[in-house]
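User: Run a structure prediction on this.
Assistant: Running it now.
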Amino acid sequence: MSTKSEREKRRAERLAAEQAAQNAARRRLVFGYVAAGVLALAVIVGVGVVIASGGNDTNQVNGENIPEAAHIQVNSGFLHGVTPDGRTGTPPPALQQGDLQKAAAAAGCTLQLDLEDEGNTHITKESEIPDYGTNPPTSGNHNPEQLADGAYSEMPAPWYFVHSLEHGRIEIQYSPDLSEQDQLALKGVFDESPPGMLFFPNDEMPYEVAATAWTQLMGCKEYKGRATLDALRDFRDTYRGLGPEPLPIQTG
């Protein structure tokens, strides 16, 4: 009797041990599935982060996303709350006319060169902003903080971009009434060589397109496609880097 009881006891213990082993194996299997699921989720999330951060082609500046296509050079000045233009321009055709005078004439643009220097005193009160002698302005007293090189989707306050002219910048300005296609063609000239350049709309000037440097102005009553693009590139290549206080132009 005793022997039978012992055999039953050992059998019960063996069954219990086998059941415990099976339960442990099941737990390990479930844990493996969970771990694999977590790893797969991490991979998916990681890919999503890469896509979200790289696919938008943006740079983080002071916690703000700046589109790379705007070519904002934050070390050259300040954004002053102006929204960057992240559109990719249409690449311009090969330059046909490399002489500024001839290109401006072909495009119907008026050149006003070697204008009066209206001063370059720093002012900090809006009540001190002068009535600039040209439209768009080409010189004059201005805010101490210049506008950073780059493309913008709205018109900055003139006392910021006048300061940029003082440091040898070229500014391409256009009427916001131009078609999207024409705006992108102009943006393409900016994209072609953005260092030392600013690009933005201007709804206050009497031109469809204008280019300015310090005491230099080219105003175009109408946008005439390739002829206007040639004139803008010639103006850029003639006056970029010139001004009473030129600053280094960043190339990267």
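The longest helix spans residues 2-54.
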